[in-house]
Amino acid sequence: MDKIIRIGTRSSDLAMWQANTVAQQLEHFGCKTEIVKIDSIGDVVLDKPLYELGVTGVFTKNLDVALLNGEIDIAVHSFKDVPTKLPKGIVQAAVIKRGDFNDVLILKDGEDFFADKNAVIATGSLRRKAQWLYRYPNHTIVGLRGNVNSRMRKLEENDWNGAIFAKIGLKRLKLLPPQEEHLILDWMVPAPAQGAVMVAALDSDLELLEYVKQINHEDTAKCVKIERDFLRVLEGGCTAPIGALALIIKEEVKFKGVLFSPDGSNKMEFSKTVPVDNAWDLGEYGAKYILDRGGKNLMRSLQSEGEKSTLIYSTKSLSLAQTNSLDSKIGAVSSDFITIRNNRLKPIVVRKNIENALFTSQNAVEALLSNFDANELDFTNIYCVGRRTKKLIEKRIGKVKQSENSAEKLADYLAKNLKDTSVTFFCGNKRRDELPTILAQNNVVVNEVECYQTSLTPRKIEEKYNGILFYSPTGIESYLKDNSTFDSVAFCIGETTAAEARKHFEKVIVSKVSTVESVLDAVNEYFTKSTEEEI
């Protein structure tokens, strides 16, 4: 093939190993390749056009978009992360030979804990949790997220007895401990397609599809199809602990599929061995067998309970559309931790011309507009913090002269450009000190107009949430009244909020822009990355 094949991949160590392996196999047949790292969909808007294309994969969405946009020629995925329904226009081009499919338990201090009722095992996988509790119902399972290295570090730092990983991931990254420090869990049924790597391409690129077919491993492709058929028929859009494994041994396919309840109390299993030539519908048959014998009731109960592998709590009420923008594996609860009440302002506040008007929040703009018509507001220059605030001002009041993404940055700008003059600062009772302090230090007089009142409405929440969403420092203050930080990630709408969160949370993620939607995008991106490969 004459052209250079652009191989799209995520940039994690494991993803790069997979992409480089595919590159080596393609180069063996004489073509040239180029690795293209894609970690985020960036500025691509996840709206109706993309949804119509069927881009729903937790781990594959960004690569699917790049493929559909012509930025790459093929995409390389851990096959178990690929949705059972591919996006329109994308097809499976090849599956390379499968590696080890087993899960392993990495031991902390030996195996003596197995008889201990207080044993603690760490895993971020719903499937692994259910199977472990089915076998060891008295043990405790704790959540474990992050990349391979961070998970290994957490095992060392905590008083856990062990943690479960995918053996193939540890082997590929040369991180598998010595034999005496791990146990192969050969009784645990792996995730469908675990250990397999899939190459995706556009269905319209016939020449490329024919070329990539050369690296396809036929037996792996057959087995993985059976496993994924089992998953596709069972899942029905609901997250559930499902395991499946098909092996070709001496012209026969040996298949086992399992469905568990999340707490491991219920197990349904299907096992069958058939000739290879008769195995084309084995996965679908096995799923229907389970559904017809109680599986439907189990799946229905999971759907009704809203079982999610990840839970987040928003300290601001989310709309239905905002909640629906979260990945299907993320469950959300929300409520308002602060309430806003607009003050009644006297006409004298705006009766005279104001040369420099300053806003650091949408709340101040909305409070001002609740008291006065836009044509009553006579501002020569308007300065603000945040894109949404700027948009509201320019829609309702007038042109913004300068906006920044934080109060500190705006203060620095004003200090340089408005020395020996004054500003009118429209704010709330909980306004932060940084901006007026910096301005006062630079001989800028600040006339404050308190437009609204912020009241704390704290409430106690359960310690089961993987992420807490914050939209202001005051929201953090309210949250901490009745809650600890426990082991949660703080997702923040802007740098000012993040600065406060870092005083209390070990892990803080800042949204790319100061909108609720951007915070939710950050949640989706973080949790899809942190559960990569279940290792």
Written overview of the protein:
This protein is α/β, with parallel strands linked by helices and 535 residues long. It has five domains: 122 residues, 3-Layer(aba) Sandwich (D-Maltodextrin-Binding Protein, domain 2); 83 residues, D-Maltodextrin-Binding Protein, domain 2 (3-Layer(aba) Sandwich), CATH 3.40.190; 88 residues, Porphobilinogen deaminase, C-terminal domain (Double Stranded RNA Binding Domain, 2-Layer Sandwich), CATH 3.30.160; 106 residues, 3-Layer(aba) Sandwich (Rossmann fold); 117 residues, 3-Layer(aba) Sandwich (Rossmann fold), CATH 3.40.50. It has 18 helices and 24 strands. It has a six-stranded mixed β-sheet with strand order 16-21-20-17-18-19. Strands 2-1-3-10-4 form a five-stranded mixed β-sheet, with helices on both faces. A five-stranded mixed β-sheet has the order 7-6-8-5-9, sandwiched between helices. α12 links the parallel β17 and β18. α8 runs parallel beside α9 and α14 runs parallel beside α15. About 3% of the residues have low confidence.
Q: Architecture of the largest domain, according to CATH? A: 3-Layer(aba) Sandwich
What's the overall geometry? elongated
CATH class of the largest domain: Alpha Beta
Which oligomeric form is depicted? single chain
Structural class computed from helices and strand pairing: alpha/beta
Q: Count of helical segments?
A: 18
Number of domains: 5
Which spans of ≥5 residues are poorly predicted at pLDDT below 50?
40-56
The Cα radius of gyration reads 28 Å
Distance between the termini: 36 Å
